[in-house]
Every structure is written in structure tokens, then in C-alpha cells.
Design a protein that fits this description.
alpha+beta, UDP-n-acetylglucosamine1-carboxyvinyl-transferase, Chain, 2 domains, about 30% helix, binds uridine-diphosphate-N-acetylglucosamine
């Protein structure tokens, strides 16, 4: 069944443990290709993007097994080949294989990456940076062909702190000869996580989490065991759900330090927050407050991945709020679905004005992309009546089991 049915209107009550991070595990899986041994990843989320990445890795000869949330990957006997278009085309992160394949084989052949329909997603920054490390790249109608017999360290300055381009540089530079200094690097926690993992494999990377990353290339990387951090976007989604649906909820294993911008917004919305260790208790006694402006921006700013969930929550918050989307220009498709429920949203270019309404009404909705789909779950849980959200498979790309999680928070889901 590719839909879920939510009966809205009940305030939240319950608790949920936050799953492992999607955006951290995907580049780490690419990095695992570089070890000629066995990689063990704990807390690996069971989501369809991970499934697709594992299929891609199998195509290169990786063997793997899952033991609950533990994933064991044996990359001992690999062969270069062409990644399956069926899987590479479903996700943006397949491009991250490029750096690792070049590091391991000196060559790579990849179909163009796919991903969510949230605007133009060029790969020029990835290609430019990899060329600076010595890669020769050809873009053909079928995809990319790349050769890099001797990757060499370089001084690279990214025109924009792209998360994916930063990850690709780090993945290849870890094995390049000499030192790479990457300036204007992305500072997202997922970059820190990838560099920590690579360092566990024997890489020598410093400065992750700052704008300048310094990578001293090493000859080989070895096997490693690593625990994937919790997913800040999943945590943020459920935090915004609490602002929309009200009630009281406890989130466990929350990466609180990574969610400062989101917590600030929740505070403005009037949601009470109490934290103890990695636990966050949220309580929204009445209607939440809007009437402020939020811009998405690179970390540590408000994450673009939580823009649609925030929009859904603001639909029911008092006052007129503004969201400016500064990362992906076409990320407002969810507004059309929210409008079907009675939301009052005006879009002008990269700006959305959201006027809080008294109520949303449940109806038939379509998820068009991952985070937009999660936003519809928030709206449906807070709406009056029943909603059906079709194209559930988009949500399953990043949420391990949103149905279980919603039920655990007291939402009625069929
Ligand atoms: C990653 C995340 C995604 C998140 C995004 C921004 C993963 C698997 N995905 O995506 O969830 O929304 O960061 O935080 O980690 N750009 C170019 N040329 C390039 C690369 C990017 O112009 O070569 C532009 C993009 O079109 C976009 C902006 O840079 O406008 C940000 O993209 P980037 O940071 O690269 O995001 P992703 O790595 O694709």
C-alpha cells in the first residue's frame, strides 16, 4: 500500500526514540568502499535510501548483512563497474560514490544522480573540485566517466558550501598524495560524522565542522566499527509536529546541540522544551504562535530539510509568518497540498507567506518528495478529520517507520 491514513485532531502523548541519521550514513556507506576489509555500522537506519545505496554497493562486489540496526559490509573483493541506473537514478547521494570509487579504483562510471523534485540539483561543484584533485571527468548522455590514476592534494575553495561536494572532496582527498585544504567547506554535522568515520579508518582529517578542512592523504584505509549519530531532521520533524498537534511528547536520543536553530523557532512558537541528557520533552498546551520570519541557510542556520515541516506547523499558528527558502529554489510544492486542507499560503519566488488558519481539514494528499511528505503527516495529524497521504514511498526514503513513530506519539494512523 503506497499511502497512509491519519485521523487528525488528537493532542500528542507518548515517546519516540530518534533513528540513525540518513544524511550521515549515506556518505559513510560510500566511504566503506575504501576499506579492503569489513566495516561495521551500528544504529544504521532501515530506510529505502540506505537500501538503494546497498544495492549500488552490491553492484561493485560488496557483501553485506543486517543484524537489526547493525550493518556489516565486506568490501574485500571489489571490481569497478557501472552502477545500476535503477538505483543511482532514485537518489542524489549516488554522486557521493564518485570520490570513493576514484580513490579505490582510479576510475568510475556512474549514471547521473536522481533525488527529490526540489529544484535544480547540479553537480558542477562536485566535478570542479574533483578535477582539482586530478580527476579527468567526461559527462556523456549516459552519465559520468572519470579517471584519476594519481589523486593529488590541492587547495580548493568551494564557491558555495555544498554538503555533497564537500563530502566528495573529503572522500577522494583522504587517499590523495599530499595535503588538501578545502575552503568554504560545508559545516553540517554530517560532514563531521563522515570525517570522524574516515579518521577511524585511518584517514588524517582536521577541521571538519569549520569552514576549512585539512586532509593529509594516506596510502590506505582500514576496517572500522562506527555508530551512526541520530537524525537531526527526523528529530526536528517530530519537534515541529508537537507545535502543530499540541500535547506532550518525549523524544529520546536527540542530537540537541545540532538543533539550536530549530529550538529557537519552537521557542518563538511557544512550545515548552525541557532537555535532560539526550532527551527532549516538548509540551505545547494550546495553539502555537506564528508572526515571525525564518530563512533557511547552511548549518548552523535553519535547515532547508525542515522548511516544509515548519510550513505545515505555521499553517495553524496565530499570525502571519514568512519563510524564505535560500537553498533549493523549488521547495514549495507542499504548499499546494496544504492549500487543499484549507491552509492560507502565498508563494512569491523563494518567499512563502503563511497566514495561520483556525483549522485544517483532512483530505486526500500526495507526497511529492521526502520532507514534503513528512510535512503532510504533520498537517494531517493536526487537522480535523481523516487524511490519506499517497506516494508514501517518498517518506520511506528517510523515515524508518513514521507510522510506528506517529502511533507512539499518540497519533491515530491506519
Ligand atoms: C544535502 C542533503 C540534503 C540537504 C542539503 C542542504 C544529503 C544526502 N542530502 O544535499 O538533505 O537538503 O544537503 O542542506 O546529505 N549546488 C550546486 N552545484 C553543485 C552542488 C550543489 O549548484 O554541484 C547547489 C544546489 O543546487 C543547492 C545548494 O547548492 O541549491 C545546496 O546543495 P548541497 O549542499 O550540495 O546539497 P546536497 O549535498 O545535494
Amino acid at each position: 500500500m503506497d499511502y497512509l491514513e491519519i485521523e487528525g485532531g488528537s493532542p500528542l502523548c507518548g515517546e519516540v526514540r530518534i533513528q540513525g541519521s540518513k544524511n550521515a550514513v549515506l556518505p559513510i556507506l560510500c566511504a566503506a568502499l575504501q576499506s579492503p576489509g569489513v566495516t561495521v555500522l551500528e544504529n544504521c537506519p532501515d530506510i529505502s535510501d540506505v537500501g538503494a545505496m546497498l544495492e549500488l554497493l552490491k553492484g561493485y562486489g560488496c557483501r553485506m548483512r543486517r543484524e537489526g540496526s547493525r550493518l556489516v559490509i565486506d568490501a574485500g573483493e571489489l571490481h569497478p563497474g557501472r552502477a545500476s541506473e535503477a538505483y543511482a537514478g532514485t537518489m542524489r547521494s549516488s554522486i557521493m560514490l564518485l570520490g570513493s570509487l576514484l580513490a579505490r579504483f582510479g576510475e568510475a562510471c556512474l549514471p547521473y544522480p536522481g533525488g527529490c523534485v526540489i529544484g535544480e540539483r547540479p553537480i558542477d561543484l562536485h566535478l570542479q573540485a574533483l578535477r582539482q584533485l586530478g580527476a579527468e571527468l567526461q559527462e556523456g548522455p549516459e552519465g559520468l566517466r572519470a579517471v584519476c590514476a594519481h589523486p593529488c592534494g590541492a587547495r580548493i575553495c568551494l564557491p558555495f558550501p555544498s554538503v555533497g561536494a564537500t563530502e566528495n572532496v573529503v572522500l577522494l582527498a583522504a587517499r590523495a598524495e599530499g595535503v588538501t585544504v578545502l575552503q568554504n567547506a560545508a559545516r553540517e554535522p554530517e560532514i563531521v560524522e563522515l570525517c570522524r568515520f574516515l579518521n577511524c579508518m585511518g584517514a588524517r582529517i582536521e577541521g571538519a565542522g569549520t569552514g576549512t578542512i585539512r586532509i593529509r592523504g594516506v596510502e590506505r584505509l582500514h576496517e572500522a566499527r562506527y555508530r551512526i549519530m541520530p537524525d537531526r531532521i527526523v528529530a526536528g520533524t517530530y519537534m515541529l509536529l508537537s507545535a502543530a498537534a499540541g500535547g506532550k511528547v518525549i523524544l529520546k536520543e536527540v542530537p540537541l546541540g545540532q538543533l539550536r536553530a530549530v529550538r529557537q523557532v519552537l521557542k518563538q512558537m511557544g512550545v515548552r522544551q525541557e532537555s535532560r541528557g539526550e532527551e527532549l520533552c516538548l509540551w505545547c498546551p494550546g495553539r502555537s504562535r506564528g508572526g515571525f520570519a525564518v530563512c533557511t541557510s547552511p548549518y548552523p542556520g535553519f535547515p532547508t530539510d525542515l522548511q516544509s515541516p515548519l510550513m505545515a506547523a505555521l499553517c495553524l499558528a496565530d499570525g502571519e509568518s514568512v519563510i524564505e527558502e535560500r537553498i533549493f529554489e523549488a521547495r514549495f510544492k507542499t504548499a499546494e497540498e496544504l492549500a487543499k486542507m484549507g491552509a492560507d499560503i502565498r508563494i512569491q519566488g523563494a518567499r512563502a507567506e503563511i497566514c495561520g488558519v483556525k483549522k485544517l481539514l483532512g483530505c486526500s494528499l500526495k507526497a511529492w518528495e521526502l520532507r514534503g511528505g513528512a510535512a503532510l503527516c504533520i498537517a494531517a495529524a493536526a487537522a480535523e478529520g481523516t487524511s490519506r497521504i499517497f506516494q508514501y514511498h517518498y517518506i520511506a526514503r528517510g523515515y524508518e517507520n513514521i507510522i510506528r513513530d506517529l502511533k507512539d506519539m499518540g497519533v491515530v494512523v491506519h
